[in-house]
Amino acid sequence: MANMIMTKTAMPEQQPDVRNKNFEEVALGYTEEMAVFEAQRCLHCKNRPCVNGCPVNVPIPEFIAHVANGEFEQAYNVLTSANSLPAICGRVCPQETQCESKCVRGIKGEPVAIGRLERFVADYHMAHSREKLQLTKSNGHKVAIVGAGPSGLTCAGDLAKAGYAVTVFEAFHTAGGVLMYGIPEFRLPKAIVQKEIDGLRALGVEIQTNMVIGKVLSVDELFEMGYEAVFIGTGAGLPNFMDIPGNGLSGVYSANEFLTRINLMKAYLDDYDTCIIRPKRVAVVGGGNVAMDAARSAKRLGAEDVYIIYRRSEEEMPARNEEIHHAREEGIEFCLLTNPVAILDDGTGKVGKIECVKMELGQPDDSGRRRPVEKKGSNFQMDVDCVVIAIGNSPNPLIRITTKGIEANKRGCLVVDESTMQTTRQGVYAGGDAVTGAATVILAMGAGRQAARSIDAYIQGRNE
Amino acid sequence: MFKIVEKAALNPSITKMVIDAPFIARKALPGQFIILRVDEHGERIPLTIADYDREKGTVTIIYQKVGKTTLLLDTLQQGEAILDFVGPLGKASELEGYKKAAVIGGGAGCAIAYPQAKALFNMGTHVDVIAGFRNKELIILEDEMKKVSQNLTVMTDDGSNDHKGFVTDALLANIQNGAGYDLVIAIGPIPMMRAVSNMTKEYGIKTIVSMNPIMIDGTGMCGGCRLTVNGEMKYACVDGPDFDGHQVDFDEAMKRLSIFKEQEQNAVRNPDCRLLRSANNG
């Protein structure tokens, strides 16, 4: 019997005035009863529009049917047939623009909470499964993956399942990419990311950390070492700054630096050695998820006032609605239609103020969003002691400048054949943010999956 | 894990370690650096590659005990291991095509100046090395620097080695005596690099400095190490660490180095500091 309640089963959360003082996960997850009850809202449509909304085409109604029957492990098996990292996707995917946006229940009322159910199933499996993984029989072929972020890990997992000996080369001391250094603990606990990575290791994936490909080894050397194909999943980790005065002042951070110190280096904990300043008044410039993460992190470090400064209106904000909502609840203030023009010195080389102008929206630009236009003479100053710049990242140029035959576009993104993910060089594939520029975790995973299929076809074709 | 195959104190505050890191040893070039993390709770710190042996697969680092992490590193002994050690990072120094160079090292900066002097010397460049220390007890790498230079001048601030004065005093004397340098390399504390750059600018001598800003990843993904060079933002970890000394904004670099001064001092003084705990246990 379907559950015809119009709204999603609510997920328990930490209270805003409690959680904005700790780094623990905000959303607490469904209980078994809640999951079964929510799963019963799925109507099991014949044409399964939700599946088309998912970049990796998870068989959504099938896994939800198992949840509705209390068969959580079966649900997990269905889920992981299409998605290697479900505990992560269930938490960080923008479901409102993907699977859930296509759900028939969303026409009148709220869609089925697919993301929350995915998360429940993955967490249930991690907590309860004692099953030993069956290693796939080796097919004798070696593939190298550059970068241990979502695209590289997905590609590695799929190839390992197909029998390849896979080595992932990661520049940092920890695998995970943005899942480890970028997305904060309160949205994505690092222990969960670690468990997903350990799961890949159990599949036979070898991960070598502290290996900066392009410096310590070149792509050509990887081929010389016997790897038959290389996948580049190096992301878009090069932070952009604004072309305004004051970028060099103490207290101005890229969001990457601010979040890396907090998430990867755990600078907010006393028994870790990495420093972080604990600012009082923080301006975060930008309107994406990274800006929300930085602002909410600043609040948790004890800042009294945290401002999001964004040059368009809320409607154009690229951040997930849920993140904007959570940020507001936690006391983050939004300065919309506002753009910084200078960061000002307090007289000692530290940030003292940020000077902004008011903006208004003009005609739509190339991106289809209405272009912000400066209101002349509307300059004003705000007292701040820290500015975090979260206006986007570009791909790191290291691979493309050290590898022959790999073309990039003018934004520095690697050029690939969209159906195969092959770069302009045979045997070298790429995917994720390194190709698209900063996008989402699930799109990166979808690209990794597609590349794994192409790499398999390429290597099998060569050996026929 | 990266094993420490040799450890030696060069003076009371400066230590040399030879680390087993064959991949890095194969690729390292003068001017490049590594980032290390001592243990699971440690921070990432950059250190210049002071030497390397491609056949033995080792990389030499020389560090000064200035704060918590370098003190913690110094608790490790030969045979023990460093958790993370990544490199070679940064651009190699561009040293080709010079006839006569002065390579200037200040204090621990000599550990970075030494491989550059060695590379120049081996290319056939005439090399004068000028090294500066606070007093004669702190002098390091004297024999090594002598071997890779035509002339070595060691200055002490207090004159305890009978050569009283700053490195700039020795440099000025050489220039005025008609040394005819077409390159000066200056590596050490920022005030020293700034003083050398100001002096060589007057004489129009090309000057390279090796910048030492705060770093985390060392691969260009955070911008923590950014500097202003000739009015443009540069990342020392990927665009440097070598830059034209006549174009670097030293004042800004100096201020940026002190961002975490308070926390760094607290980290060492704090009686609960795990370094002190480990020192007491060890």
From TrEMBL, chain A:
GO terms for molecular function: glutamate synthase (NADPH) activity; iron-sulfur cluster binding. It comes from the Bacteria. Residues 33-64 form the 4Fe-4S ferredoxin-type domain. Keywords: Oxidoreductase. Coiled coil: none annotated. It is an enzyme of class 1 (oxidoreductase). Gene3D superfamilies: Alpha-helical ferredoxin (1.10.1060.10), FAD/NAD(P)-binding domain (3.50.50.60). The keyword Oxidoreductase applies. Its EC number is 1.4.1.13. This is NADPH-dependent glutamate synthase. It comes from Candidatus Scatavimonas merdigallinarum.
From TrEMBL, chain B:
It comes from the Bacteria. Transmembrane segments: none annotated. Pfam families: DHODB_Fe-S_bind, NAD_binding_1. GO terms for biological process: pyrimidine nucleotide biosynthetic process. Its cofactor is [2Fe-2S] cluster; FAD. Coiled coil: none annotated. FAD binds at residues 62-64. Keywords: 2Fe-2S, FAD, Flavoprotein, Iron, Iron-sulfur, Metal-binding. Binds 1 [2Fe-2S] cluster per subunit. Binds 1 FAD per subunit. InterPro entries: Cyt_c3_hydrogenase_gsu, Dihydroorotate_DH_Fe-S-bd, FAD-bd_FR_type, FNR_nucleotide-bd, OxRdtase_FAD/NAD-bd, PyrK_electron_transfer, Riboflavin_synthase-like_b-brl. [2Fe-2S] cluster binds at residues 222, 225, 237. Signal peptide: none annotated. Residues 1-95 form the FAD-binding FR-type domain. One of its GO terms (molecular function) is 2 iron, 2 sulfur cluster binding. NCBIfam families: PRK06222.1. This is Sulfide/dihydroorotate dehydrogenase-like FAD/NAD-binding protein. It comes from Candidatus Scatavimonas merdigallinarum.
